[in-house]
Amino acid sequence: MEVEVTRGIDCSEQDEYYYECDLFRFTSSGVTLNARSYTDSAEEVHFLSIEEGRRKRSIAEADFNLPLWSDAVQHLRESGKKSINWLSDCGYKPI
User: Fold this and answer.
1) I need a surface site. Which of 21, 33, 49, 59 has the fewest CB within 10 A?
2) What is the rounded distance in angstroms from the CA atom of residue 33 to the CA atom of residue 39?
3) Please, which domain of life does this record's source organism belong to (predicted)?
4) Residues near 89 by Cβ (< 8 Å), separated by ≥ 6?
5) CA angle, corner 62, sides to 41 and 48, nearest 5?
6) How far is CA 39 from CA 4, 11, 18, 88, in A?
7) What is the distance between the alpha carbons of residues 95 and 84, in angstroms, rounded to a whole number?
8) What 3-state DSSP class applies to 53?
9) Is the pTM for the entire model greater than 0.70?
10) Which DSSP symbol is given to 64?
11) How far apart are CA 37 and CA 42, in angstroms?
12) What are the phi and psi torsion angles at 9 (to 5°)?
């Protein structure tokens, strides 16, 4: 599994909000999981989407069975993330 972490900014055009975040990309065998952790709540992380080749889509519960999923979750826990969530069709849900 390859892990890429970059610092990002989440902000509005009208300066209504401004957040710094760490963006995680976990990649293996042509599949990538994308996650985000805001720096002001560093113990929390959210899985946002999955990419298969060039196709980006929402995460489905069936994706929890992927070896990449368990490896990514383990990596995040070992990095100090205590609250791990995923973006479902109904909003954020805990893992």
Assistant:
1) 49
2) 19
3) Bacteria
4) 58
5) 30
6) 16, 14, 11, 22
7) 6
8) coil
9) yes
10) G
11) 6
12) -125, 130
Q: How many CB atoms lie within 10 A of CB 29?
A: 10
Tokens representing residue 62 in the block: 């069936």
Distance CA(5)–CA(84), nearest Å, equals 16
The answer to whether the CB of 68 falls within 8 A of the CB of 26 is: yes
CB burial class (10 A; 0-12, 13-18, 19+) of residue 79? middle
Question: Rounded to whole angstroms, how far apart are CA atoms 6 and 14?
Answer: 24
CA neighbor of 39 nearest in space, from 62, 10, 67? 10
User: Which amino acid is present at 10?
Assistant: D
